[in-house]
Amino acid sequence: MAKGKTATHRPILICWALWVVACGSSCQKGSNTPTSEVRKPAASDSIFVPPDTSTIPRNATGDMIRYGRELLVNFPYYLGPKGTVGKYGGNGLGCQNCHLEAGTRPYGLNYFSAHARYPQYRAREGRILTLAERVNNCIERPLNGRPMPLDSKEMVAMVTYMQWLGKNVPVGGNVPGDKLKDIALLDRPADPVRGRVVYEKHCIRCHGDDGQGVLKEDGIAYVYPPLWGKLSYQPGSSMHRLIKSAQFIKYNMPNDIARWDKPVLTDEEAFDVAAYVNDDKLHERPQPNLDTEYPVLKEKPVDYYWPPYADGFAPDQHKYGPFKPIIDWRKKNGHPTGY
Ligand code: HEC
Ligand code: HEC
């Protein structure tokens, strides 16, 4: 797909046409008629290409898009504990530490389809959330902070950038390369002891022996973010869930060499190191009250570590796996199987 060239006029049609051309006969089935149905991207689909920043318009909307992007790239400077515009983040983490490259890296927790899929029912709150409320979730959990006013200029700017980034994404839809890439689940529990070995080989050179990363000289943001400890993300954050964490790590870390199409770790290594990083017996984290999460108990994701559960599996199995037996039981009993 030509970079940023697609479609200011008929984005959906042109995107569909390009997918069909790009993936040849292998994924033609059902994909040659445009439809508003949510379509699960096949592995052979070409990755979504977001618009180029040089095409951000030179007008008031464009100014907001640029400001939103700047906030998402440099959040701690504007809105962290030492923020010049407001103090909302509770630690030095910034959005870009997880939503890589201003939220544009394929399978790197990008924002490609975020705007297209909100407002959305969220099981954690048991109600519909807007995209701005979802942003506040990340400010409260991984950033251990307090929610921003939903109508603040800064919140509106961040959401406007996300809207611009996903302007060629069908409403309600997903695109190839968005969010995180699937990973094969293990048939055994993930093992933090083996994970420590992986950590020493592949992670320590940046995130450090103590997992505390490296702060920039200005003391405001990180060169390498911390992976655990009081200054890291809370339990209950999505990054603390084993499957999501393993998916992120496998296709993005080590940050300098791994990408979705050239991962460095095996599935087993990714799960084991994710178990080591997130192990609550080995590593402390800020301790929020998680008792009010998931008001409909059976909607708790299979890899959510905080009990109780509606499925009767032990908390340790929800932490380390194996997850297939939980998923099978839930399927059989009509419970949601999400992770
Ligand atoms: C420690 C990592 C981390 C940090 C830091 C972080 N997030 Fe997130 N964020 C996640 C994960 C993990 C998800 C869940 C993605 C999923 O469900 O697949 C998520 C989800 C989101 C979503 C929903 C995306 C979608 O497509 O559904 C938005 C929007 C978002 N984050 C915005 C932000 C913003 C803005 C910041 C900074 C203020 C931020 N996040 C900081 C890890 C992080
Ligand atoms: C070359 C240095 C480097 C190596 C090696 C590396 N990372 Fe990272 N990691 C980073 C950087 C830099 C970021 C933040 C990205 C950004 O800000 O652009 C990051 C972000 C992360 C995050 C999300 C942010 C957070 O604070 O939780 C996790 C989780 C993570 N790395 C885990 C790992 C694991 C596990 C390994 C080993 C398999 C690893 N990393 C190896 C540089 C590295």
Share in β-strands: under 5%
Number of domains: 2
Number of strands: 4
- What proportion of the residues is helical, as a percent range? 25-40%
Q: Topology as H/E string? A: HHHHEEHHHHEEHHHH
CATH topology assignment of the largest domain: Cytochrome Bc1 Complex, Chain D, domain 2
Report strand order across the widest sheet: 1-2
Describe the structure.
The two termini are 31 Å apart. The chain is mainly alpha-helical and 339 residues long. It has a two-stranded antiparallel sheet with strand order 1-2. A two-stranded antiparallel ribbon has the order 3-4. 33% of the residues lie in helices and 3% in strands. Residues 1-38 have low confidence and may be disordered. The chain has two domains: 51-165, Cytochrome Bc1 Complex, Chain D, domain 2, CATH 1.10.760; 180-339, Cytochrome Bc1 Complex, Chain D, domain 2, CATH 1.10.760. A hairpin with a 4-residue loop joins strand 1 and strand 2 (127-129). It has helices at residues 11-23, 60-73, 75-79, 100-103, 131-140, 153-165, 192-202, 204-207, 242-252, 267-278, 315-320, 324-332, and strands spanning 120-122, 127-129, 214-215, 222-224. The chain has twelve helices and four strands. The radius of gyration is 20 Å and the shape is globular. Residues 93, 96-98, 100, 202-203, 205-207, 224-227, 232-233, 239, 249, 253-256, 265, 273, 277 line the site of one heme C.
